[in-house]
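Quick question about two entries, pasted in order.
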Amino acid sequence: MPDMIIPLLMLAVCGQGDEIPPCAPALSGLSGTQMFETTDFVPEGMLRIGLSGRADLPVAGGTAWSAPVSVCYGIAEGMEAAASIPVYISDDAWGFDERTGDLRLSAKFLYESVRDGTALALTGTMQIPSGAAGRDGGSRLGAGIVTSTTYRLFRLSIAGEYYLCGGDDPFDARLRDGAGLDLGLSSFLSWQVETTAVLTADTDGSLTAGAGLVCFPRERLVLHLSACADMDDPEGFRAQAGAAVTLGAGALPDGI
C-alpha cells in the first residue's frame, strides 16, 4: 500500500506551493516531460536550464545531430516563460549549413486548478526563423491550452494548439494555419524514476508516437531519455537524452 501512495503524493504536489515540481523541460522549454507539456511550473524567481543531445533520422535518410538548449523562468506563481533553440553539430539529413535552428519563445499561465491535481493552463508560443525553414519550420505563432489530471498511478496530460506559420519571412510569405494535439501519459515507478509516453498529431498530417524515462538522481537535477517514431512512416525516428538543473531558492518534495 505505501508503494502506491508515494507516487500519488508526488503527482499531487507537482505545481503546488513553493516546491520545485519533479519535471523536465518540454520541447518548448516549458515545464512538463521531455516530450510533452504539463500543468507544472517553475516556482517564482527560479530558473531551469536544460541541455540535450538529439539525433534526427528523417525518412529522407542521413542523420542530423543537434544539442537543444532551453531556459525557463518562474515569473510569478502559476506563470513561467521559456526560450529554446537547437544547435546543430552536423546535418547529413537535410543538408543545411545553418548551425542554429529556430528560436522558440513560450509562456504558460495557470488558469484553474483543483485539489485532486487537475489543472488547466494557457500557453503561447512564438517561433523566430533563425534556422532553415525546410528543416526547422520557420516563423510560427501559436496559442493553446494544456490540462493535466491524476488517476491512481497515472497522470494524463492533453495539450492543444492553434498556430499560424509564415515560413522564412512572415511579412512576405503566405500565412497558413493549423492545429496540433499532444496526448501524454506518465507514471512514477519509484520516487526517482518516471515513465512517459506520448502521441502527437497535427492537421499537416503528422502522427508521432514516443516513449521515455525521466530520472531525478539528485535534488534540482533531472535526467531524461526518449525516442519518437513517425507512425505514418516508421523510418522517421528521433532519439534524445539530456539533463536539466534548477537554480534559485526552494526545495524539492521530501525524498527526491
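Here is the second entry:
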Amino acid sequence: MYEVIDFAFLNQCVTNKPFNAMRIAIPIMFLISVVMVGSSCASWKQNRWLSTHKKELDRLANSNLSPEQKLDGLVQDYIKFMNEDLKFIDPRKGVKYVKKYHDQNQKSMQKILDSSANWQESLNTVDKVALGVRTIKKPYVKDLIDLAPKFKRKYKQYAIALKLLGKIGGGLTHFVGKELF
C-alpha cells in the first residue's frame, strides 16, 4: 500500500502537475500581502493627516490673521484631529497619533495660543463679553463640546492627550475660565 502512495506522488511530480501545497500557499501569500498593503495604507493615511495638520497650523501661526481667527483655525483643526483620532480602536495607537500630532505641532499651537492669550488679556470687560457671545455662536463649539468628553474618556489614563485637550480648550475659553472642560 505504501508503494502505491509513493508511486502516485512520484507520478504527480513527473507529470508536472502542481502540488496541492502550492494551491494552498498561493492564497495564503495573497492574504499576507493584502494585510501588509492594508497596514501600510493606514500608516500612509495617518502620515498624510499629520502632514495636513502641520501645514495648516504652520500657515495659521505665521499668518497675518487676527488672534481670534487664528484660534478659530486652531480649534477647527483640533476638532478634525480628534475625529481622526477617535477612529482608532486600539487606544495605544491613538496615543501614538496624539503624541505625533503634539510633537510636530507644539511650536505652532503654542504661538497661536500665546497670541490669543495676549490679545484676550488686552480686551476690556465689554469686549470680553462680546467675544464670549461670538464664541458660543461659532459652529465648531458644539462639535468641541461633543468630542471633548469622548476624547477624555478614551484617553483618561494618558496624560499627554488630556494635557493637549486642556491647552486647546483653555485657549478657547481663556476669557471665561475652563468650565467647558
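Reply: Residues 51-172 form one domain. Residues 175-181 have pLDDT under 50 and may be disordered. Hope that helps.
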